[in-house]
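Re: that chain you flagged

S.,

Sorry for the slow reply, it's been a week of failed gels. I finally had a moment to sit down with the sequence you sent. For the record, here it is as I used it:
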Amino acid sequence: MANYGFDLIDVDEEVAEAEVAEMVIHRNPKVYLERLNLLEVLDEENFRIRYRMRKATAERIIQMIEGQIAPFINNRGSPISATVQFLATVRYLAKGAYGVDIADQHGLSQPSLSNIIKRVSQALAAHRHRFINFPTAEESHQVKADFYRFANCPSVIGAIDGTHVKIKCPGGDYPLLYLNRKGYYSLNVQVVCDAKCKIRDIVARWRGSTHDSRIWNECHLRRRFMHGEIDGVLVGDNGYQCSRYILTPLLNPQTNAEQRYNTAHIRTRNVIERTFGIWKNRFRCFFNGLNLQLETTKAVIVATAILHNLIIQERLDNDDSSDDEYDDDNDRVIYHNDGREHVQGNLFRARYIDTHFNEILYKMCQKCL
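Prediction finished late last night. Pasting the structure tokens below so you have them in one place:
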């Protein structure tokens, strides 16, 4: 009697071997994108539209950070120049598009672009004390004069406020601490600017649930004011406590002097809202939110502040006063505190109003302008 079971097994094995031999493994072909040096390809106008700055400024920045970021070797062993790294990073920050689109435009892969953004942002942030600094004693006279021209507020050396930068969920044990009152994850970034919209101080490490006044109370700039290192006052909204160092508006002005003070305060403080608008419109990654690791996000915020200052200085040097449109989308939480410092702040503000905004002196100041 024939053993049909074994015959069937032998037939199946032969068929399987034949099918394996005929199988063809289909793989996607490797695509090597061409890396163009857009610094050389684009003319001045198109380069400025895409990268928010002049070629000369870009070249100066690349030369400054070249030693920190070059060479970068990607997974295929091909070096990526400092120029391509910088331009890809700035384009990502300026456009706020998906990383894969920016990577394709610069001949990079998505993983390489992510690493490059981190490297370039950290390299730029390392120069923060060079490009983000409070006015020196010599500069402060000019800064105060610039603010005074807004609305006759003397001794003002900066405008302060906080703005939320949207981030992805940071994970970890306490992600809800990054959830702000508007319902999204963010970092609450404190900024002080001058009358020309240059960022003079920035704190970019606090969670979105943190109040503006807490950030101010803990920051190094406040300690400098307290130690007498800075001569002048800041103007802020009612999210801050009125003090010897920050002037806030009156909630219920009663006299003509108080009304004049409030009007002048609003016109003077408006520069910080304009700074936020120009900064965020220039780097539109802020509108879509930063889908980066938390530490990279902090470096990106500081890096964009540095680039913002360089572009502002570039325009001042070239007598170009054109600015981007801005939009004030900040809703404020009024800060209330009945402590001793708050009382002293109110007394200081009352003396300030009486000294500079009484009717006779105010009319004399207007005649001098």
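What I noticed first: The CA atoms of residues 47 and 360 lie 53 Å apart.

Talk soon,
D.
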